User: Fold this.
Amino acid sequence: MQPAVDLKGQTAAVEVRKQRKWRGTWQLHAMLLPAIVIVFIFQYIPMVGLVMAFQDYEPWLGFLHSPWVGLEHFKTMFEYEDARQVIWNTFVISTLKIIFNLGVPLAFALLLNEIYVVKFKRTVQTIVYLPHFLSWVILGGILIDMLSPEGGMVNRMLSLFGMDSIFFLGDNDWFRTVVVVTDVWKECGFNTIVFLAALTSINPSLYEAAIVDGANRWQQTIYITLPSMLPIIIVVGTLSLGNILNAGFDQILNLYNPLVYKTGDIIDTYVYRVGLLNGDFSYATAVGLFKSIISFMLVVTGYRLAYKYANYKIF
Assistant:
Protein backbone atom coordinates (compact mmCIF):
# COMPACT_ATOMS: atom_id res chain seq x y z
CA MET A 1 0.00 0.00 0.00
CA GLN A 2 1.17 3.54 -0.76
CA PRO A 3 1.60 5.83 2.25
CA ALA A 4 -1.10 8.46 2.67
CA VAL A 5 -0.16 11.94 1.50
CA ASP A 6 0.01 14.43 4.36
CA LEU A 7 -1.61 17.42 2.64
CA LYS A 8 -1.86 19.43 5.84
CA GLY A 9 1.83 18.92 6.55
CA GLN A 10 2.82 20.00 3.05
CA THR A 11 0.62 23.09 3.26
CA ALA A 12 2.13 24.03 6.61
CA ALA A 13 5.65 23.59 5.20
CA VAL A 14 4.83 25.86 2.25
CA GLU A 15 3.48 28.54 4.59
CA VAL A 16 6.61 28.36 6.72
CA ARG A 17 8.81 28.82 3.65
CA LYS A 18 6.75 31.81 2.54
CA GLN A 19 7.08 33.42 5.98
CA ARG A 20 10.84 32.87 6.00
CA LYS A 21 11.14 34.33 2.49
CA TRP A 22 9.09 37.39 3.52
CA ARG A 23 11.22 37.93 6.63
CA GLY A 24 14.33 37.89 4.49
CA THR A 25 13.05 40.22 1.77
CA TRP A 26 10.70 42.68 3.49
CA GLN A 27 13.40 45.33 3.41
CA LEU A 28 13.51 45.12 -0.38
CA HIS A 29 9.73 45.49 -0.56
CA ALA A 30 9.91 48.49 1.77
CA MET A 31 12.37 50.17 -0.63
CA LEU A 32 9.64 50.05 -3.30
CA LEU A 33 7.20 52.01 -1.13
CA PRO A 34 8.39 55.54 -2.11
CA ALA A 35 8.19 54.63 -5.81
CA ILE A 36 4.71 53.16 -5.35
CA VAL A 37 3.54 56.33 -3.57
CA ILE A 38 4.96 58.56 -6.33
CA VAL A 39 3.34 56.47 -9.07
CA PHE A 40 0.01 56.54 -7.22
CA ILE A 41 0.12 60.32 -6.76
CA PHE A 42 1.27 61.28 -10.24
CA GLN A 43 -0.17 58.44 -12.37
CA TYR A 44 -3.37 57.16 -10.76
CA ILE A 45 -4.88 60.17 -8.99
CA PRO A 46 -4.75 62.33 -12.17
CA MET A 47 -6.84 59.67 -13.93
CA VAL A 48 -9.85 61.23 -12.19
CA GLY A 49 -9.52 63.99 -14.78
CA LEU A 50 -10.59 61.58 -17.52
CA VAL A 51 -14.20 62.49 -16.71
CA MET A 52 -13.54 65.77 -18.56
CA ALA A 53 -13.70 63.81 -21.82
CA PHE A 54 -17.42 63.28 -21.18
CA GLN A 55 -18.15 66.79 -19.88
CA ASP A 56 -18.23 70.33 -21.14
CA TYR A 57 -15.65 71.10 -18.49
CA GLU A 58 -15.34 74.56 -17.02
CA PRO A 59 -12.59 75.18 -14.43
CA TRP A 60 -14.80 77.34 -12.22
CA LEU A 61 -17.48 74.62 -12.10
CA GLY A 62 -15.16 71.66 -11.50
CA PHE A 63 -15.80 67.98 -12.13
CA LEU A 64 -18.97 67.84 -10.06
CA HIS A 65 -20.92 70.69 -11.65
CA SER A 66 -19.70 70.75 -15.27
CA PRO A 67 -22.48 69.59 -17.67
CA TRP A 68 -22.22 66.09 -19.14
CA VAL A 69 -22.13 65.74 -22.92
CA GLY A 70 -21.47 62.00 -23.27
CA LEU A 71 -19.53 61.02 -26.39
CA GLU A 72 -19.95 64.41 -28.08
CA HIS A 73 -16.22 65.23 -28.01
CA PHE A 74 -15.31 61.86 -29.53
CA LYS A 75 -17.77 62.49 -32.38
CA THR A 76 -16.25 65.93 -32.90
CA MET A 77 -12.78 64.40 -33.00
CA PHE A 78 -13.63 62.26 -36.02
CA GLU A 79 -15.51 65.08 -37.72
CA TYR A 80 -12.59 67.54 -37.57
CA GLU A 81 -10.25 67.23 -40.54
CA ASP A 82 -7.37 68.45 -38.34
CA ALA A 83 -7.92 65.59 -35.87
CA ARG A 84 -7.97 62.96 -38.62
CA GLN A 85 -4.80 64.42 -40.11
CA VAL A 86 -3.11 64.37 -36.70
CA ILE A 87 -3.96 60.70 -36.17
CA TRP A 88 -2.62 59.85 -39.64
CA ASN A 89 0.59 61.84 -39.02
CA THR A 90 1.13 60.02 -35.73
CA PHE A 91 0.62 56.62 -37.34
CA VAL A 92 2.97 57.36 -40.27
CA ILE A 93 5.78 58.85 -38.18
CA SER A 94 5.55 56.12 -35.53
CA THR A 95 5.54 53.34 -38.11
CA LEU A 96 8.60 54.73 -39.87
CA LYS A 97 10.42 55.12 -36.55
CA ILE A 98 9.63 51.54 -35.53
CA ILE A 99 10.83 50.12 -38.86
CA PHE A 100 14.09 52.08 -39.02
CA ASN A 101 14.82 51.82 -35.28
CA LEU A 102 14.67 48.05 -35.76
CA GLY A 103 16.50 47.70 -39.07
CA VAL A 104 19.31 50.24 -38.67
CA PRO A 105 20.53 49.08 -35.21
CA LEU A 106 20.34 45.44 -36.39
CA ALA A 107 22.48 46.17 -39.43
CA PHE A 108 24.90 48.28 -37.38
CA ALA A 109 25.23 45.53 -34.75
CA LEU A 110 26.02 42.96 -37.46
CA LEU A 111 28.67 45.24 -38.96
CA LEU A 112 30.13 46.12 -35.57
CA ASN A 113 30.32 42.45 -34.66
CA GLU A 114 32.67 41.89 -37.64
CA ILE A 115 35.29 44.26 -36.17
CA TYR A 116 38.00 42.35 -34.32
CA VAL A 117 40.00 45.37 -33.05
CA VAL A 118 38.46 45.67 -29.58
CA LYS A 119 39.55 49.26 -28.85
CA PHE A 120 38.23 50.56 -32.16
CA LYS A 121 34.99 48.60 -31.73
CA ARG A 122 34.37 50.01 -28.24
CA THR A 123 35.24 53.54 -29.38
CA VAL A 124 32.74 53.42 -32.25
CA GLN A 125 30.06 51.93 -30.00
CA THR A 126 30.58 54.67 -27.40
CA ILE A 127 30.43 57.48 -29.96
CA VAL A 128 27.20 56.12 -31.47
CA TYR A 129 25.71 55.58 -27.99
CA LEU A 130 26.36 59.13 -26.70
CA PRO A 131 23.41 60.93 -28.42
CA HIS A 132 20.98 58.77 -26.43
CA PHE A 133 21.89 60.75 -23.28
CA LEU A 134 21.13 64.15 -24.81
CA SER A 135 17.65 65.60 -24.40
CA TRP A 136 15.63 66.81 -27.36
CA VAL A 137 15.74 70.33 -25.94
CA ILE A 138 19.49 70.39 -26.57
CA LEU A 139 19.38 68.43 -29.81
CA GLY A 140 16.47 70.53 -31.06
CA GLY A 141 18.51 73.72 -30.76
CA ILE A 142 21.49 72.09 -32.46
CA LEU A 143 19.38 70.76 -35.34
CA ILE A 144 17.62 74.09 -35.86
CA ASP A 145 21.02 75.77 -36.30
CA MET A 146 22.43 72.99 -38.48
CA LEU A 147 19.38 72.82 -40.78
CA SER A 148 18.76 76.56 -41.00
CA PRO A 149 18.20 77.70 -44.61
CA GLU A 150 20.31 80.77 -43.89
CA GLY A 151 23.82 79.83 -42.85
CA GLY A 152 23.09 76.31 -41.59
CA MET A 153 25.94 73.82 -41.93
CA VAL A 154 23.91 71.38 -44.05
CA ASN A 155 22.77 74.03 -46.51
CA ARG A 156 26.28 75.40 -46.75
CA MET A 157 27.47 71.96 -47.81
CA LEU A 158 24.65 71.77 -50.37
CA SER A 159 25.67 75.15 -51.79
CA LEU A 160 29.18 73.81 -52.44
CA PHE A 161 27.59 71.38 -54.91
CA GLY A 162 25.53 74.12 -56.52
CA MET A 163 22.26 73.10 -54.86
CA ASP A 164 19.62 75.50 -53.52
CA SER A 165 19.00 75.86 -49.79
CA ILE A 166 16.30 73.61 -48.31
CA PHE A 167 14.05 74.69 -45.43
CA PHE A 168 14.13 71.25 -43.78
CA LEU A 169 12.09 72.22 -40.71
CA GLY A 170 9.61 74.37 -42.63
CA ASP A 171 8.90 72.15 -45.63
CA ASN A 172 6.14 69.53 -45.33
CA ASP A 173 7.95 67.30 -47.82
CA TRP A 174 11.10 67.18 -45.67
CA PHE A 175 9.90 67.42 -42.08
CA ARG A 176 8.95 63.75 -41.57
CA THR A 177 12.26 62.64 -43.06
CA VAL A 178 14.17 64.88 -40.67
CA VAL A 179 12.16 63.60 -37.70
CA VAL A 180 12.73 59.92 -38.53
CA VAL A 181 16.42 60.30 -39.44
CA THR A 182 17.30 62.30 -36.32
CA ASP A 183 15.40 59.91 -34.06
CA VAL A 184 17.21 56.90 -35.54
CA TRP A 185 20.53 58.72 -35.15
CA LYS A 186 19.78 59.46 -31.50
CA GLU A 187 18.56 56.00 -30.48
CA CYS A 188 20.63 53.77 -32.78
CA GLY A 189 23.40 53.21 -30.24
CA PHE A 190 21.04 52.22 -27.44
CA ASN A 191 19.12 49.75 -29.59
CA THR A 192 22.36 48.30 -30.95
CA ILE A 193 23.30 47.10 -27.46
CA VAL A 194 20.27 44.79 -27.41
CA PHE A 195 21.32 43.10 -30.64
CA LEU A 196 24.99 42.92 -29.66
CA ALA A 197 23.94 41.09 -26.49
CA ALA A 198 21.95 38.64 -28.63
CA LEU A 199 24.99 38.09 -30.88
CA THR A 200 27.15 37.05 -27.92
CA SER A 201 24.69 34.26 -27.04
CA ILE A 202 25.12 32.46 -30.38
CA ASN A 203 27.03 29.18 -30.09
CA PRO A 204 30.51 29.64 -31.70
CA SER A 205 30.54 25.98 -32.76
CA LEU A 206 27.88 26.80 -35.35
CA TYR A 207 30.29 29.18 -37.09
CA GLU A 208 33.12 26.66 -36.85
CA ALA A 209 30.97 24.01 -38.53
CA ALA A 210 29.96 26.50 -41.22
CA ILE A 211 33.60 27.38 -41.92
CA VAL A 212 34.44 23.69 -42.29
CA ASP A 213 31.59 23.41 -44.81
CA GLY A 214 33.06 26.33 -46.77
CA ALA A 215 30.54 29.04 -45.86
CA ASN A 216 31.74 32.64 -46.25
CA ARG A 217 30.89 35.49 -43.84
CA TRP A 218 27.79 36.50 -45.78
CA GLN A 219 26.43 32.94 -45.76
CA GLN A 220 27.19 32.61 -42.05
CA THR A 221 25.18 35.78 -41.42
CA ILE A 222 22.22 34.60 -43.50
CA TYR A 223 22.03 31.01 -42.26
CA ILE A 224 23.34 31.27 -38.67
CA THR A 225 23.35 34.81 -37.27
CA LEU A 226 19.96 36.06 -38.40
CA PRO A 227 18.03 32.83 -37.59
CA SER A 228 19.66 32.77 -34.13
CA MET A 229 18.66 36.40 -33.54
CA LEU A 230 15.11 35.94 -34.83
CA PRO A 231 13.52 35.57 -31.35
CA ILE A 232 14.96 38.87 -30.06
CA ILE A 233 14.05 40.59 -33.34
CA ILE A 234 10.46 39.39 -32.94
CA VAL A 235 10.38 40.53 -29.31
CA VAL A 236 11.71 44.03 -30.09
CA GLY A 237 9.40 44.37 -33.09
CA THR A 238 6.20 43.22 -31.40
CA LEU A 239 6.80 45.22 -28.23
CA SER A 240 7.25 48.31 -30.40
CA LEU A 241 3.58 48.02 -31.41
CA GLY A 242 2.65 49.66 -28.13
CA ASN A 243 4.41 52.84 -29.30
CA ILE A 244 2.60 53.05 -32.62
CA LEU A 245 0.77 56.19 -31.40
CA ASN A 246 3.79 57.67 -29.60
CA ALA A 247 5.58 59.58 -32.33
CA GLY A 248 7.88 61.44 -29.93
CA PHE A 249 6.33 64.45 -28.19
CA ASP A 250 9.64 65.96 -27.03
CA GLN A 251 11.21 65.74 -30.46
CA ILE A 252 8.24 67.10 -32.41
CA LEU A 253 7.57 69.91 -29.94
CA ASN A 254 11.16 71.17 -30.20
CA LEU A 255 11.37 70.91 -33.99
CA TYR A 256 7.99 71.69 -35.52
CA ASN A 257 6.27 75.01 -36.31
CA PRO A 258 2.95 76.11 -37.86
CA LEU A 259 4.38 75.65 -41.37
CA VAL A 260 4.56 71.86 -40.94
CA TYR A 261 1.39 71.17 -38.95
CA LYS A 262 0.01 69.34 -42.00
CA THR A 263 2.61 66.55 -41.87
CA GLY A 264 4.30 67.02 -38.49
CA ASP A 265 1.54 67.60 -35.94
CA ILE A 266 0.95 64.45 -33.85
CA ILE A 267 -1.64 63.51 -31.22
CA ASP A 268 0.48 64.57 -28.23
CA THR A 269 1.38 67.99 -29.62
CA TYR A 270 -2.21 68.47 -30.80
CA VAL A 271 -3.53 67.72 -27.30
CA TYR A 272 -0.94 70.08 -25.79
CA ARG A 273 -1.83 72.90 -28.16
CA VAL A 274 -5.62 72.47 -28.00
CA GLY A 275 -5.86 71.69 -24.30
CA LEU A 276 -3.23 73.81 -22.58
CA LEU A 277 -2.73 76.65 -25.05
CA ASN A 278 -6.31 77.05 -26.31
CA GLY A 279 -8.03 75.97 -23.08
CA ASP A 280 -10.32 73.34 -24.65
CA PHE A 281 -9.72 70.84 -21.83
CA SER A 282 -12.60 68.46 -22.55
CA TYR A 283 -11.86 67.98 -26.23
CA ALA A 284 -8.12 67.53 -25.57
CA THR A 285 -8.89 64.95 -22.86
CA ALA A 286 -11.12 63.02 -25.27
CA VAL A 287 -8.34 62.88 -27.88
CA GLY A 288 -5.82 61.80 -25.25
CA LEU A 289 -8.16 59.11 -23.90
CA PHE A 290 -8.74 57.77 -27.41
CA LYS A 291 -4.97 57.48 -27.90
CA SER A 292 -4.52 55.76 -24.52
CA ILE A 293 -7.20 53.15 -25.23
CA ILE A 294 -5.71 52.29 -28.65
CA SER A 295 -2.19 52.18 -27.17
CA PHE A 296 -3.34 49.85 -24.38
CA MET A 297 -4.88 47.47 -26.91
CA LEU A 298 -1.68 47.50 -28.97
CA VAL A 299 0.49 46.86 -25.92
CA VAL A 300 -1.61 43.83 -24.99
CA THR A 301 -1.46 42.61 -28.59
CA GLY A 302 2.30 43.10 -28.69
CA TYR A 303 2.88 41.05 -25.55
CA ARG A 304 0.56 38.34 -26.83
CA LEU A 305 2.48 38.11 -30.10
CA ALA A 306 5.84 38.17 -28.31
CA TYR A 307 4.74 35.29 -26.09
CA LYS A 308 3.30 33.31 -29.01
CA TYR A 309 6.20 33.63 -31.45
CA ALA A 310 9.21 34.20 -29.17
CA ASN A 311 8.04 32.71 -25.85
CA TYR A 312 8.66 36.07 -24.17
CA LYS A 313 6.73 37.06 -21.09
CA ILE A 314 7.27 39.44 -18.20
CA PHE A 315 5.81 37.24 -15.49
About this structure: The chain is about 70% helix and 0% strand. The mean pLDDT is 84.
